Amino acid sequence: MNQVFKPDQRRVRSERTRENILDAALQCYQEQGVNDTAMEDVARQAGVGRATLYRHFSNQDALLTEVMTRNIEQLQQIIASSLKGYTRPEEYFVEAALVIIRECHERSLTTFLFGDETLIPAISKITFSPAMVAMGNNLLDPFYQQAKAEGILRDWVTKDLLQEWTSRLLLSFLTNPSPHLNTENKMRRFFYDAVMPSIVDRS
Hints:
By secondary structure, the chain is mainly α. It has ten helices and no strands.
């Protein structure tokens, strides 16, 4: 006898299936690498049919984008919790950058993604996708609004340019870590001494 699902039950079931697929994709990426993971591998790992997989994700790029997006959304929650005590704009920006770099290096997905040079074009494309740009703007908004209210932003700084510039800066640190800035204290000093003066002016 076929089981009949009400609309709400179907939605919950669909969301659970989607999350299961994302978990399976992450496991496949960890075990096989992104480039060696086929959609069929993910379907098999998730225990779903090809039709179900493609109903949720039309292709490999869409699947990888969603896995990364979910990872970044989880990272946003960690960042928001970590920055509650910082009130000065400079402190917020620097500590946010350090949390992002630290968490990305510790998370399994970003560790092997940023360690694979062949994936850099795909990562760049995802980083500057509308969804990621929106998340970046949300993350930078407390800094931008406070610095703007204090009148300390450099003339070149607009919200869009700040988001793009910050994304490119962080992406460079994640894809090509500096051998000279190999501790968090060194990174913090670099951001305060070299990066912040290009964004804010307290003179």
